[in-house]
Amino acid sequence: MSALHNARAVTKLPAQDLERARAFYRDRLGLEPVEEREGGLRYVCGATEFHLFASSGSASGASTQMGFEVDDLRAAVAELRGRGLELATFELGDLDVTDQVVTVPGNYPSKGTGELGAFFFDSEGNLLALGQPTR
Prior knowledge:
The protein is an alpha+beta fold. It has one domain: 2,3-Dihydroxybiphenyl 1,2-Dioxygenase, domain 1. It is built from two helices and nine strands. The protein is globular, with a radius of gyration of 16 Å.
């Protein structure tokens, strides 16, 4: 068995301007850090966590860097739009996209038969997603 089998995976997202990122996550997503240190902010969502860290590098925004799995995607989208969040629009081949929500026909078998998804960029160019398994 791998030494990583029982490890907890934690997402780390770069921020060129940590205070700008803090404001985005607070104002647009309604999240506050639970802890901070020099050059870093720690957030907890359910049983998971992610960190924003000061970085001179920039995110490519070419692929999803972190996703939030929610119980009701459309309600989450409505709440976040109400906070001023703008969803990203992508051409996703044959997938159905309605009102910036994509319907994915497949999923991991233990998760369901499909998934709804929506995407947005944070203030630092990180591409983030919302997802809801469907059955």
